[in-house]
Amino acid sequence: MHELSIAAAVVESAEEVAREHGAASVESVQLRIGELAGVVSDALRFSFELVADGTLAAGAELLIEEVPARARCTGCDAEFAVGSPPRLWCPRCEQPAAELLTGRELELSGVQLPEAGSCPALHEAGRGERT
Ligand SMILES: [Zn+2]
Questions:
Q1: pTM of the entire predicted model
Q2: Distance from C-alpha of 13 to C-alpha of 29, rounded to nearest angstrom
Q3: Could you read off the pLDDT of 70-127 as tens digits, one per residue?
Q4: Separation of CA 72 and ligand 1 centre (Å)
Q5: How far is the CA of 43 from the centre of ligand 1 (A)?
């Protein structure tokens, strides 16, 4: 299953970030997924919960930002929404000459750690100085 392997990679990256910061858990994970990336958000959410179980990312919220697919016509420079299923067809010059600008993203854009765990040193230092 496609989404399961993506979820495994996401959990792995989130755990890495948590470990780097000495956090015992992960609050949320943000993903940017293009319209044409071929990922089913619901399936990914489900897979994420499965894979995250028993890891540092267990119980973390999966925030998915869907990126609409856009293309640019190489002939007239017009930008247009591609839609899904994709149609790489310039609406202005009616030619199939277009390059895809966005829509194939599949990236981890952020990992939020619980505040106390993300940077305990800073937390301690700030305590005395606050009035
Ligand atoms: Zn055009």
A1: 0.77
A2: 10
A3: 999 999 999 999 987 888 899 999 888 789 999 999 999 999 999 754 444 444 444 4
A4: 8
A5: 36
Q: Which positions ≥6 away from 34 have C-beta within 8 Å? A: 66, 67, 69, 102, 103, 104, 105, 106
The residues whose Cβ lies within 5 A of ligand 1, an ion, are 73, 75-76, 78, 90, 92-93
For the record, the structure tokens of 27 come out as: 């609050």
Q: Which of 101, 35, 45, 47 is nearest to 73 (CA)?
A: 101
- Decide if domain 2-68+103-129 falls under CATH 3.30.2320.50: yes
Q: Could you tell me the distance, in angstroms and rounded to a whole number, from the CA of residue 87 to the centre of ligand 1?
A: 13
Q: In what side-by-side order are the strands of the sheet with 61-67?
A: 61-67, 28-34, 106-112
End-to-end CA distance of the chain: 54
Spatial contact of 6 and 106, defined as CB atoms under 8 Å apart:
yes
The DSSP 8-state label assigned to residue 10 in this structure reads H
